Amino acid sequence: MFERFTQDARAVVVGAVAHAERAGAERVEETHVLLALLDREGSRGSFALAVLGLPPGGRDGVVRDLGEARRRGGLSRADADALSGLGIDLAEIVARIEEEHGEGVLADPGRGGVTGRKTGRRLFDRGARDLLTESLRITLGRRDRRIGDEHLLLALTARPGVPAEVLADHGLTHESLSRVLYGPGTATDAGTGEAKAG
């Protein structure tokens, strides 16, 4: 599939691997792809981010929010709400774990017995692989020839989880990105990548 990627999309994949390496993570995750997308300049994806109020230098809030999710062990607010419905207070659990093992222990892959590789090839975890597959679906649904960084961005917002939640908190939804990238009155069906009239 990599041969179908534009130069910008390839740069995002390489950047995601670099983010995983710097974080000491064993595998490349969706959040690493998001961070690599935020690093881009002069691409369709970076243009859409800027139009929606997130210029290349304005990514600090997104990075902070991703850090908060990592501190919760990578769980989204929806996950925390579901646990709360079962009578489980995630904030209390995180506080107890940090009290016992140190602040940020759930966010740091190099602590608590989870050790990231320092060298070697980083594989993509299931979520990141599913993200790449979703970007291909969106590309085909749009009848675009190649997968660009904008398709990766759309795929991130189409899938449930921390990256989509954090982006939505900053006004970047699948629908708003579709409007910026493809014009008003259009969006893609997140499940199929098919274009639909709005």
What attributes characterize this protein structure?
Double Clp-N motif; mainly alpha; Clp_N_dom_sf; Peptidase; single chain; 198 residues
Describe this structure in words.
- By secondary structure, the chain is mainly alpha-helical.
- It has a single domain (2-63, 118-197), classed as Double Clp-N motif (Orthogonal Bundle).
- Helices cover 56% and strands 5% of the residues.
- It contains 10 helices and 4 strands, in the order αβαααααβααααββ.
- The strands form 2 sheets. A two-stranded parallel sheet has the order 1-2. A two-stranded antiparallel sheet has the order 3-4.
- α4 (60-71) crosses α9 and α7 packs across α8.
- The chain starts with 6 loop residues before the first helix and ends with a strand.
